[in-house]
Amino acid sequence: MIYRITAFIAVVFGVVIAVSCENDHTLEFKRYYSIGAEVYQTHCQNCHGINGQGLLALVPPLNDSTYLKNNKTSLACYVRSGLKDTIVINGKTFEDVMPANDLAPMQIAQVLTYVGNSFGNKIGTVTEEQVTANLAACK
Amino acid sequence: MKKLVLGFLVIAMWGACKSDSGNKMALPIFGSRRAVSKVVDGKTEVDTIYQTIPKFGFVNQYGDSITNKSLDGDIYVADFFFTTCPSICPIMARNMLKIYDTYKGDGNFKILSHTIDPKHDSVPVLKKYADKLGVTGNTWWFVQGKKEETYDIAEKNYLVAVKKDSTAAGGYVHAGYFVLVDKQKRIRGAYDGTDPKQVDQLIEDIKALKAEPDEAIVQ
Fold this sequence. Notes:
The complex is a heterodimer.
Chain A: H1 2-43, H2 45-48, H3 65-70, H4 75-81, E1 87-89, E2 92-94, H5 105-116, H6 128-136
Antiparallel strand pairs in A: 1-2
Helix pairs in contact in A: 1-5, 4-5, 5-6
Chain B: H1 2-23, E1 33-40, E2 43-50, E3 57-59, E4 65-67, E5 75-81, H2 89-103, E6 109-115, H3 123-132, E7 140-143, H4 147-156, E8 162-164, E9 172-174, E10 177-181, E11 187-192, H5 196-211
Parallel strand pairs in B: 5-6, 6-7
Antiparallel strand pairs in B: 1-2, 3-4, 5-10, 8-9, 10-11
Helix pairs in contact in B: 2-5
């Protein structure tokens, strides 16, 4: 009997911890995402558009999930320092300069979380720690 | 009987109001104006002379010379931009494209986008910019000329404030206005080119302007 009760308590405990961890996780994601939306509005939307659609052949759209995945560790550098290289997005070439953005690592993490999980993308949370590490490795 | 008269009065006044609001459909004419008297058939008549866009000379994205005469008989929208502008220009381009798409098939309508950075925005640069926006033909001209002349005509004639401000992102600030000019080269409206609502209004106003009866075209 005691064994059973202990097992039951252990299971309940486990579930509670799992749920609360998940809540922490989703909560963190939601915080990053909603503040990221504001950062996007202020710093990115003029060029990349309200739906991340870009502007014809002038500004690339932000919905190429494969590009985001393949360049995940470089994205923070692009946001901070801008982009001068020619890039291929959804099979189209873009060659215009993207300007640098004076953003804190936290803001970069938030905006990457927003973009990375909007417009059909799903790369999960990009944390401040990841961004700080990625920025240190910028070319 | 008194009530009947009052009723008539109310109806008459309501009618008057109605025709008044009908007149308000006409777009205002901006700029300075002066009265001149002239003798027509022995009688002296007073005429109003409105401010008009003066002579200018620019070059468009095809390398063609564009002067005030190139726009004779056209309704056009003028704005000021530069191709490397990171702040409001993409939004202005997005909104101007809406106007372009609405009226590109119509004759007698043009868009004149002046670069305020002619040093960078050479003819090939302007052509490339137009290509990237999918702009073809002769409805939308991207023009460049002497910087002083562009600033001068912007400030004095298109009522648009364009001033160099090297502290701003991209090196320049400008107001982002779309200026509507009629066939007589008079300013008929200025709209915030970054505000989709005002741009929709501009599209409507162009329609209204097209419906205005033609007057003598000012030379």
